[in-house]
Amino acid sequence: MGKDIQLLDNGVEEYQQTLKYNKKIMSLKSYGIILCFDAYVPKAKDMIDNRFRINLLHDSSEPYYAFGITVLQLTFKFATQKYISLRENNVTFKRGGDSYMEIRTEGSKEYSHMGGPEMRSNPIGQTGVHINVVIYAEEFFYNISINGGDFIHYHHRFPPWAVNHVMIDGDIKDVKFEEDSSQCQKIINNSIKFELPPNMLEVKPLTDMETIVITGKISKFPINVTFLNGAIERHNRSLKKHFSYSLRPT
């Protein structure tokens, strides 16, 4: 090197990105366990955005509001600067501080009126802990349980059967969905299993030239036959198409 040239060793800070965990939901459910997973909430010093989100989605793998619907979104916010005790970078939060949980439903422009978000206390009391999250669906509410705690209730804005994708992102690691979690398997095995009503049948997607044949005896009253695509019932806000017709005795 020449006398007027010097090599400078300037450290470059590498930008850390939060992770995303995706899962496609294959079966439609009106009730029962919609989602179960285990995960690790990192220590305060390892957090990037001080939050993570759970997104239950309809016809989208990302919570993008220009299309699709975010059926249920849970945001867990951690205010790491407000703490009661700090030991080895684990934070125990003040109740009622800036640490909170937000629950919302968001739709596209055609389905924008879903009601405002609901704010709750953050049920995850500290960072640097393992968590188990279970989201149940009942007739009118989602019941959300963190580490087996009391249910957090959220009224349906959109039916649970609309959920066909899950995306979890933010300051959360080692997410294991139910198929890879022994704890979730135990919970699922001890819970109520969803069953279609007796007047409904699930059929696999049809290919060219395949047909559906319905046999039976028509009673004195008309019989309505409805074909649903990605749905369990007709719903005014559903993006899925359906058609129906009536059979009448002659």
From TrEMBL:
Keywords from the named record: Lectin
Stored Pfam families: Gal-bind_lectin
Domain Galectin: residue ranges: 21-193
Keyword Ribosomal protein: no
Protein known as: Galectin
Plastid among keywords: no
GO molecular function: carbohydrate binding
Origin: domain of life: Eukaryota
InterPro entries: ConA-like_dom_sf (IPR013320), Galectin_CRD (IPR001079)
